[in-house]
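Sample entry (396 residues):
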Amino acid sequence: MASTSTHAAPAAAKEKLTPVKTLEDHEDFIQSMAYFPDGKRIISGSDDKTARQWDMQAGKEIKKERDVCQWEVRAVAVSRNGRWVVIAGGNDDHTELKACEIETGIMKTFRGHSQEIKCIDISPDSTLLASGSRDETVRIWSLVTGKLIAGPFEGVGFMGAIRFSQDSKKLAVSSEVGNGLDVWDVQTQKSDVMFQGKGTMTPAVTQVPLFWTNRETILTAFNFTDHGPITIYEFDASTLKTVGTSFEGHTDIINSIALSFDGALLASSSRDNTIKLWDFESRHLLASFHVLNAKIIIFSPLDSRQLAYTTATYKDDNKIYICNTPADILARTTLPKVRLLTFTNLRCNNLLQKTSATLQDLLEVCVTSICTFMLIGMHHPSLTQPVVLPPCTVIE
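Predicted structure, serialized as tokens:
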């Protein structure tokens, strides 16, 4: 079922990944981090029971925004419209899941899981929250009402990562050891397809993120063998069969992956002490950097010109490192076969929710803030339906 490379990739560029900023204040392992949509802030969650926000220009914590939690923070997320910040965590006997509406400061608490929450995701339309727990269930909540609207779903065992599809209608779930995948229909609350690999339990939990690509496939590291998830695969979302060439090059378990917002650049971190950058379309390895104990990696929104990463060195390095993505690497990426049109206005998202909105309306109104309108395959099925706008680079 797994694909293998059929041609040799060009040699990866040997460049130094030098941090331009280091964010430090956490007192224990950093378990999760996420950029705000404008790229000006990062939120991070740690085993020190805090979620902290960081000013990217100043390179310092915004201390008034610090959230002190009852239990270890395992996951953080920010909605694409910038309205919600979600924090999740807990331990074997307790659970914590809460969402803060940024503008009003109103906090919502979601109760239902019986053990710590390991992963969360906010739907691209910023209305739904999905949570995956050590209680082996996934639940979907309304961010507006705070009520459970779907689930609990069971399937792949302990949850490692979850991700809504770009239309918010499907939810992909992976196991924490990287040997199971499941795709759920949010409306019917039924599993469309599930795949359990033959790989056995890995030496430790990895919780590799998964992504829906611009062509509605699923991207993640997967464990097909007894060696753990050391290779990244692209899966057909309807069959969970692998498609295309896999991303091969790591020699030890992959800790994290990140896909740039335009879908052109893939980053991966591994226990082999490297961070690798790949061209998504060609599968070519563009660069490999030696980074000791590289753990979480994320790209900045809009242009993916920054790469943030953490390391895991047993409590003596609880920092976030901010690096500039090498310009020559960005220049060598192949743009996905997706046309991106730019519209700008703070009212753009609201306008797009109106079924009567026309292309002329969008061109006239969207003139002051960045949105991205994606036309898959050079055409969009309808301009009269609500459209989800991911915060991507503006490219024509």
